[in-house]
Amino acid sequence: IIAAIMAHWLEQIALEKDEYHKECLNVGQEISSKGANFLMCCVDGSSQSDIAFQSAMNLRKKFDHVNVFHAYIDKPDLQPASWRPKSLESKFEVELTGRIPKSLFSLTFVDRSGDTVNNVLEQVVDPVAFQPGGEGTILPARPDFIIMGHHGRKGPKERKASIGSTADRALRNLHYPCMIVKNLVPAGPRSYLMAVNDSNVSKRGFDVLMRLVNPRDTLQLVYFANRELSSPQEKFIIRDYYTKELQEVGPVNSEFKIIDCPPHTTLANTIIDYVNESTADVFVIAPRTTQHPSSLTNELINSVPITMLLCKN
């Protein structure tokens, strides 16, 4: 009889704990539906993708959802055991379970069956699939940010690049903000450096960036002015707009600067030199979403040594 009473008592405690856990998760889901981010991190088992995953975990806020995505092809005889799909899935599930509630993470592992990683990724995040009446997708929600590692390209290529072909193509074809992790993004207060101008694309990119910035972070907005093309009136308009924006929504440690390009120096080199001398953790630009990025965007992606966030929208 005592054993039966104890078993019933333990069962009731377990049920109460489950109900409490469900209530907490429901609260989390309600809050996460009101402005939280959906961070999609692409992994492949490499050390660089591990750095991208850790950066995503450092970037997430309390109710942000983290999705780990892997388009795999299973080759038991050619892959290390740690790179096999089941091993990777178990690894990330254990790590996520130990750090965040189960309702705030998901794993999307897709057998690409001879297709390329690029094509699978583009199909999974196709914006049309998330629209009402769309065919739907295997992702639980539409990504707000896509995070991927910085992979060196293998073998000679027609166009020199310091990032892998998947990240390289994603920057051209994905209509989402993309972060290329070149070094670990810290968990504590971070420093962001964003190159801005007076375009609407830049202004929307600033709004996208503010979804990641925390109150204790440092934010510096810089307008790199071409001496021949930038008029005093244009500088005044840009300074006035971003100064007001920083006062309204920026963190306490924020500032706006104008840097004039030195004579006989290209805009790209001016930006790269400035980033190299800064202590920023993340460099941010807001390029137009086109299949052929400008030469300036290409040069910055290839040459800037720190993590880059491309606020495409």
From TrEMBL:
It comes from the Eukaryota. It holds the Pfam family Usp. Residues 40-182 form the UspA domain. Gene3D superfamilies: 3.40.50.12370. This is UspA domain-containing protein. It comes from Spumella elongata.
